[in-house]
């Protein structure tokens, strides 16, 4: 049961997978939204998704490393993504990141 709505477990997994794919699509569509801004506002970013993806794969017996998971999330190798889209963080962003990084989860 999910809240007050009963959803069959298989359907719930399908819905959650669709939501995940939409989130990844959204991240890829808006690369100008920097990870540090996501971290500072929501305490998670594309790298967190990559870590969660890797962890979920490993828990299911799939040997996936962090770089492979990042390539799945970013839609390209991370080094390529950095060159194309990552901007240098401001001192203010870096200071806020110190606090938000403490709230981030693995």
Primary descriptors:
106 residues, mainly alpha, SMc04008-like fold, 6 helices, 69% helix
Describe the structure.
There is one protein chain. The chain has 106 residues and is mostly helical. The chain has a domain at 31-103: SMc04008-like (SMc04008-like fold), CATH 1.10.3340. Helices cover 69% and strands 0% of the residues. Helix 2 packs across helix 6 (91-103) and helix 3 (46-59) packs across helix 4 (66-74). The longest helix has 21 residues, at 9-29.
User: What is the approximate shape?
Assistant: globular
Write down the overall mean pLDDT. 93
Roughly how many Å is the radius of gyration? Answer: 16 Å
Strand content is: under 5%
**Helix and strand run:** HHHHHH
User: Between the first and last Cα atoms, what is the distance in angstroms?
Assistant: 26 Å
Q: Give me the CATH architecture of the domain at 31-103, please.
A: Orthogonal Bundle
Sheet having the most strands: none
Low-confidence parts lasting 5 or more residues at pLDDT below 50? none
CATH class of the domain at 31-103: Mainly Alpha
Q: Care to count the β-strands?
A: 0
Structural class: mainly alpha
CATH topology of the domain at 31-103: SMc04008-like fold
**CATH level 4 superfamily of the domain at 31-103:** SMc04008-like
**Counting H and I runs of at least 4 residues, what is the number of helices?**
6
The helical percent reads 55-70%
